[in-house]
Amino acid sequence: MKNIFVLIGVIFFSMTSLSFAAEIEVKMLNKNEDGEKMVFEPSMIIANVGDTVTFLPTEKGHMAASIKGMIPEGVESFKGKTNKTISYEITAEGLYGVRCTPHYANGMVAIIVVGSNHDAEAFLSGKKFPRKLKCVLKRC
Ligand SMILES: [Cu+2]
Question: 8 CA distance to ligand 1 centroid (A)?
């Protein structure tokens, strides 16, 4: 009898941890279905703390790296290699700017949005970035 309760506990625990820690895949593309060139898909990544975001080299020539000064304070930065998959675990709420360094000037950027308690204006103010970044964030 006791074993049944342990089993139920284990199942319940696995279910809750599954529902709280998602694996989010982001493709790195030369062109998306709308004809936009050099894009992350999705470019607006909605995540929760504990989720893992994985950037996939779906098409050649891309990589993903956090943008300096555009990630929450205290979290680790990340930098992938060209044509390689990189996974990043989200550890704090806030906004994370992501870029493909070779195509940063082309506006190949993404934003990871974690939680709702963040300030888009403060995130953007006083920094240099491609216009696309603001567009991703404000959905223009
Ligand atoms: Cu790229």
Answer: 46
Alpha carbon of 29 to ligand 1 centroid (Å): 7
pLDDT tens digits along 53-72: 999 999 999 999 999 999 99
How many whole angstroms from 19 Cα to the centroid of ligand 1?
31
Query: 3-class DSSP state for residue 51?
Result: coil
Q: Give the pair of three-digit tokens for residue 89.
A: 């675990």
pLDDT recorded at residue 14: 58
Cα gap 13→108, rounded to integer Å: 39
Q: Kindly give the distance from the C-alpha atom of residue 120 to the centroid of ligand 1, in angstroms, as a whole number.
A: 24
Domain ranges of the chain: 21-137
Q: Is 80 helix (H, G, I), strand (E, B) or coil?
A: coil
Q: 100: CA distance to ligand 1 center in Å?
A: 5
| The CATH fold of domain 21-137 | Immunoglobulin-like (2.60.40)
